[in-house]
Design a protein that fits this description.
Blueprint: H1 16-22, H2 25-28, H3 32-48, H4 54-72, H5 85-97, H6 99-103, H7 110-145, E1 151-156, E2 159-165, H8 166-191, E3 193-194, H9 210-217, E4 221-222, H10 226-231, H11 234-260, E5 268-269, H12 288-312, H13 325-349, E6 351-352, H14 354-363, H15 368-377, H16 382-399, H17 408-412, H18 422-425, H19 428-433, H20 443-456
Parallel strand pairs: 3-4
Antiparallel strand pairs: 1-2, 5-6
Helix pairs in contact: 3-4, 3-7, 3-9, 4-5, 7-8, 7-13, 7-20, 8-11, 8-20, 11-12, 11-13, 12-13, 15-16
The structure holds arginine.
Residues 24, 28, 84, 110-111, 114, 318, 320, 322-323 line the site of arginine.
Length: 460
């Protein structure tokens, strides 16, 4: 085993089991790029401030660029015996360029270094997740646009309630994803703070130019308190929380897709390329993508809970417990990055059984409220109208028919206010198209909402 970087004070090298226990390189190796970019900025600033000389800075720069290139093309692989990626890169640099490499860590601690690397990494990941969110969002909008007139039952308590359209139903998810995107944007804004210069916990005696490092790395701000900066993981918790909320939305949509693709509903057919068969039952076509998404939701909730619990009892400032942050937040971002394209493809390729949806809407007395509203328009107080419509529903249930199947004579027995125009009032297309206020399911209103949604996020 290599001599640890802290060999001065120690008489023994680390027990090899404890070395493995202590190490994070297995999961933090993915930070290599951010670690190197941070070190390049730090070294450039140290030289500009006259803290290291320019030859050393040039050697560090060249060495780090080489190491980065070798990481990228797989020529260099992290040594699993190293404690973490930060130590590995520094040791590798020193192996290559000698003493100049040992000067890189001047005025820096792994505590501010890891805080920087994780912010940089998650900032990059958030850009990718945002793109994936947008692709999902645009797919939902495109599918919704095709179904402005696709009548289906809307449910409460999983009981057919009132007629809506598939476009209106999908628009609900479009709103959820819009909030997910703006929540992510907020999170990134708070992540955009540069912690380097905080040292182990108490800053440093060297005259660092922290703003210069922030400028090089593209941060809008530098952290205002060294103890907070090295011990804060709010940005990871907040991102995990954003992702957990997104997974709630994804999981709810998937639950509906699973129901809708069942033979009992038969509202949609999933594309063969997005479904799986059974090893024993030849007829089966299973909605695995939707089920897996619903299942993976638990992982992301777990990751959030891991992070919250990890941080809740930690005294200031850095504690080694915090090394446990990475697997949780990496798992959350990896999971969401798997979910998004799969779910987008699933929605994009599904076939909608518009007739089945319309039949279901026609069959469940979803126009009973409209019948009551019709009676109200004839002057009956709403409570009485509710009761008359309810009695008509009871009458239909006893005869196994729908409100629109009754003759006018049958209806007028229940109220003399009912006239021939009642059929128009309870026609499902009318029931939907007359719900024409902002936010309601009329095709006109949903089209306006979709146009607004489409214009909401710049796609630059
Ligand atoms: N691998 C460590 C982590 O991820 C780096 C920071 C270690 N700092 C320390 N003082 N031991 O948190």
């Amino acid at each position: 085993m290599a001599t640890p970087l802290w060999n001065g004070r120690f008489r023994k090298s680390l027990n090899s089991q404890i070395n493995a226990y202590n190490a994070s390189i297995r999961f933090d190796a993915r930070l290599y790029r951010q670690d190197i970019l941070g070190s390049l900025a730090h070294a450039a600033m140290l030289a500009d401030q006259g803290i290291i000389d320019t030859e050393d800075e040039a050697a560090i720069r060249q060495g780090l660029i080489e190491i980065l290139a070798e990481f990228e093309d797989g020529r260099l692989v992290p040594d699993p015996e190293s404690e973490d990626i930060h130590m590995f890169i520094e040791a590798e640099l020193t192996r290559r360029i000698g003493d100049a490499g040992k000067r890189l860590h001047t005025g820096r601690s792994r505590n501010d270094q890891v805080a920087l690397d994780l912010r940089l990494y998650l900032r990059d990941v958030c850009i990718e997740i945002r793109d994936d969110y947008l692709a999902f969002y645009q797919t939902l909008i495109a599918v919704a646009r095709q179904h402005l007139h696709t009548i289906m039952p809307g449910y409460t308590h999983m009981q057919r309630a009132q007629p809506i359209t598939l476009a209106h139903h999908l628009m609900a998810y479009i709103e959820m994803v819009a909030r997910d995107i703006s929540r992510l944007d907020d999170c990134v804004r708070r992540m955009d703070v540069m912690p380097l210069g905080s040292g182990a916990l108490a800053g440093t005696t060297f005259p660092l130019n922290r703003q210069q490092v922030a400028d090089i790395l593209g941060f809008s701000e530098i952290s205002a308190n060294s103890m907070d900066a090295v011990s804060d993981r709010d940005f990871a918790i907040e991102l995990a929380s954003c992702l957990a909320i997104f997974m709630v939305h994804a999981s709810r949509l998937c639950e509906e897709i699973i129901l809708w693709s069942s033979q009992e509903f038969a509202f949609i057919d999933l594309d063969d390329a997005y479904s799986t068969g059974s090893s024993i039952m030849p007829q089966k076509k299973n909605p695995d993508v939707a089920e897996l998404t619903r299942g993976k939701t638990g992982r992301v909730f777990g990751d959030l809970m891991t992070l919250l619990t990890l941080m809740k009892g930690l005294p200031l400032a850095y504690n080694k417990d915090m090394q446990e942050d990475k697997e949780a937040i990496f798992d959350a971002v990896d999971t969401v990055r798997l979910v998004l394209p799969a779910l987008t493809g699933l929605i994009e390729t599904m076939t909608v059984q518009t007739e089945r949806m319309a039949e279901a809407a026609a069959g469940g007395f979803t126009n009973a409220t409209d019948l009551a509203d019709y009676l109200v328009s004839r002057g009956l107080p709403f409570r009485n109208a509710h009761s008359v419509a309810g009695k008509l529903v009871r009458y239909c249930l006893d005869r196994d028919c729908n409100l629109q199947d009754l003759s006018l004579d049958e209806m007028t027995v229940f109220s003399p206010l009912i006239e021939a125009d009642v059929y128009e009032a309870i026609d499902l297309n009318q029931c939907v198209s007359r719900r024409n206020i902002p936010g309601a399911p009329a095709p006109e209103a949903v089209l306006a909402a979709l146009d607004q949604a489409a214009a909401r996020f710049s796609t630059t």
